[in-house]
Write a structure and sequence with these properties.
By secondary structure, the chain is α+β, with helices and mostly antiparallel strands. Helix content is 27%, strand content 24%. The chain is globular and about 50 Å long.
């Protein structure tokens, strides 16, 4: 069993669409909103890049630690530390969620957290939504390997972010919460039209 070095690194949502179009310039209902977050690193390499490569591309998620969503980020870190229950009905926790709204109904990359005295393991990484029990593999040919970290260094990295983010939650309000919900509804309507549903 390989014990990986856990870390965090700044990352941005990929705004390109198939064909090379940059969606930040689009005005239709399927445009993507820019999102920045802290990606998890495994032995220094961004985890999301590895997930994308194994899945053959096409994943569109953002990490659960974001300055723009400090309340949700604090809750996510508490889950990652095992101090709060998972946010999925089966007890699993989200690592990456919808970059538009963070809603688990849009689907998320999740894992089961296993804590030991000196080790932390993310088990059975996969895709799931909060309205169904099934967990889908992220790639067709093989399951994504479990990730194991030394618990003290894992906790130190996450607690540094918890200390930084907690003051940001005091009196925090999302100024564009309603607009974000409307954007999500427009995206869902566009997808329904695309597939011939109303």
């Amino acid at each position: 069993m390989h014990t990986a070095t856990f870390g965090l690194t700044p990352a941005e949502r990929d705004l390109e669409m198939p064909g090379g179009q940059t969606t930040s310039l689009r005005t239709d209902a399927v445009s993507k909103t820019p999102a920045t977050y802290l990606d998890f690193t495994i032995d220094g390499d961004p985890l999301f890049s590895d997930l994308q490569a194994r899945a053959g591309g096409g994943l569109d998620f953002a990490g659960v630690i974001q300055d723009s969503w400090p309340i949700e980020s604090v809750a996510a870190i508490e889950r990652l530390l095992g101090e709060a229950p998972g946010d999925l009905p089966d007890g699993r926790l989200s690592l990456y969620t919808c970059p538009e709204c963070g809603d688990l109904g849009c689907g998320a990359v999740t894992a089961r957290l296993h804590l030991e005295d000196d080790m932390v393991t993310w088990q059975h990484l996969g895709w799931q939504a909060d309205y169904e029990d099934e967990i889908s593999a992220l790639c067709d040919d093989e399951a994504f390997p479990d990730l194991t970290f030394t618990r003290d260094s894992y906790e130190r990295v996450l607690r540094e972010q918890l200390t930084r983010l907690r003051p940001m939650t005091a009196g925090f309000e999302y100024p564009d919460q309603w607009e974000r919900r409307l954007r999500r509804e427009r995206r869902l309507s566009a997808v329904r039209r695309l597939f011939g549903r109303r």
